[in-house]
């Protein structure tokens, strides 16, 4: 389901609403995953983190979850208004929560609220 979020991002124009719905579905299917839970593979966590990072890059061309010192990235498409951008942020948060990365999800929301 996380990969469906990536597909929703890559269609032209990107479909933030569908990406958000897919991320919520992923979180619903996974249930509450605690950090460092061994029931979810490291590969699944990595996929969720990578997709969330890509969604955040769509929401903001300079944001990266994976590196704190990454240079601004150039994106082929920027959201046309804040609500679309926020839907990508929300989808990223749902994906991070679905794989037990709750601290990263909180950080994403804090950063977004401090830097709208």
Describe the structure in your own words.
By secondary structure, this protein is mainly alpha-helical. Helices cover about 60% and strands about 0% of the residues. The chain is built from five helices and no strands. The longest helix has 18 residues, at about 40-60. The model is unreliable at about 70-80 (pLDDT under 50).
List the helices and strands and how they pair.
Blueprint lengths: L1 H9 L5 H15 L11 H18 L22 H17 L3 H13 L2
Order of helices and strands: HHHHH
By DSSP, the count of extended strands is 0
- What class, by secondary structure content? mainly alpha
Rg, Cα atoms, Å: 13 Å
The coarse overall form would be globular
Task: Tell me the strand percentage band.
Answer: under 5%
Which stretches are poorly predicted, pLDDT < 50 over at least 5 residues? 68-81
Share in helix: 55-70%
Biggest sheet overview: none
Number of helices: 5
Average predicted local confidence, pLDDT: 76
Distance between the termini: 28 Å
Give a quick rundown of the structure.
The chain has 116 residues and is mainly alpha-helical. It is built from five helices and no strands.
Characteristics:
116 residues
């Amino acid at each position: 389901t996380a990969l469906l979020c990536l597909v929703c991002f890559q269609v032209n124009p990107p479909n933030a609403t569908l990406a958000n719905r897919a991320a919520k579905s992923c979180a619903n299917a996974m249930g509450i995953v605690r950090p460092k839970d061994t029931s979810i593979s490291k590969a699944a966590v990595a996929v969720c983190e990578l997709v969330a990072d890509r969604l955040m890059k769509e929401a903001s061309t300079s944001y990266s979850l994976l590196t704190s010192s990454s240079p601004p990235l150039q994106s082929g498409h920027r959201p046309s208004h804040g609500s679309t951008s926020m839907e990508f942020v929300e989808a990223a948060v749902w994906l991070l929560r679905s794989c037990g990365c709750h601290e990263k999800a909180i950080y994403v929301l804090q950063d977004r609220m401090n830097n709208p």
